[in-house]
Amino acid sequence: MKPIVLMTDSKPYMDERVKILHLPFIGIRTLPIQTIRSHYDWLIFTSKNAVDIFFKNYPQTQYDKIAAIGSKTKEYLEQMGYFVDFVPSAFNQECFIKEMNNRFDGLSVCLPVSRNARPKMFNALKRSANVDRIDLYAPVSNKVNILKAASMITNGEVNWITFMSPSSVEAYRCYNWHKDVSIMAIGHVTSHALAEIGIEHYVSPLETKESMIESILTIEKEKVTKHEF
After folding, report:
1. ∠220-223-227 over CA atoms, to 5°?
2. 190: part of which helix (H) or strand (E)?
3. Within a 10 A sphere around the Cβ of 8, how many other Cβ atoms?
């Protein structure tokens, strides 16, 4: 029997090896347009949502180069016809900071992000670059989906639940964490959010949905093997 995986992020995903139920826990609310520079040496994108909202709300902004965190954001930009000049080898702020070297020194940088984005990258950039952080959107909880998920989990209709961000963890923290449901976090930041509220969980080795599913399948196979012996 295929594992039943409840995915809580906003982008649908398919994998024939598991049964995926898609219930986004977080929506977004676009924030008011700000006054920004007319030209930047670099734009840095951390998510598809940031790409969509920035180019919609700031279409006249000129730039020379684009950087992205994560292969999916890079692929999305390229699908839209934008060339990506820099992407770190791992899909998180820490790796971006480690590998950016002096690439942004003395240059103007625009960092369009969620209002809830961690400040680590902004703080690192502003030590050597002229960086503007633009809060594009704010996460909002999807109460209907969260209640539906809580009911499904309580009724034993789900084997796994995946969390893609601290915001999704926070949105669900007051609901039922059933002991028979396994939890998978996409990376160390989301893992930390789960650990802070005492939720046992697994962490995928790579910060991708593919890695999460691979990890789930490996764990399920190990459970079967252990049961057989």
Report:
1. 145
2. helix 188-196
3. 23
Residue of 13, 208, 27, 207 lying closest to 114 (CA atoms): 27
Confidence label for 227 from pLDDT (cuts 50, 70 and 90): low
Q: What's the pTM value of the predicted model, to 2 decimals?
A: 0.77
Calpha distance 65→47 (Å, rounded)? 17
Q: In what order do the strands lie in the sheet with 39-45?
A: 26-30, 130-141, 108-114, 39-45, 62-68
Residue 41 has pLDDT above 80, yes or no: yes
Torsion region of 70: left, alpha or beta (phi above 0 gives left; psi -120 to 50 gives alpha): left
Backbone angles phi, psi at 5, to 5 degrees: -115, 120
| Span 61-65, average pLDDT | 98
Task: Give the CA distances from residue 209 to residues 7, 21, 59, 74, 203, in Å, rounded to whole numbers and listed in that order.
Answer: 9, 14, 31, 15, 11
Of 28, 23, 62, the residue nearest 47 (C-alpha): 28
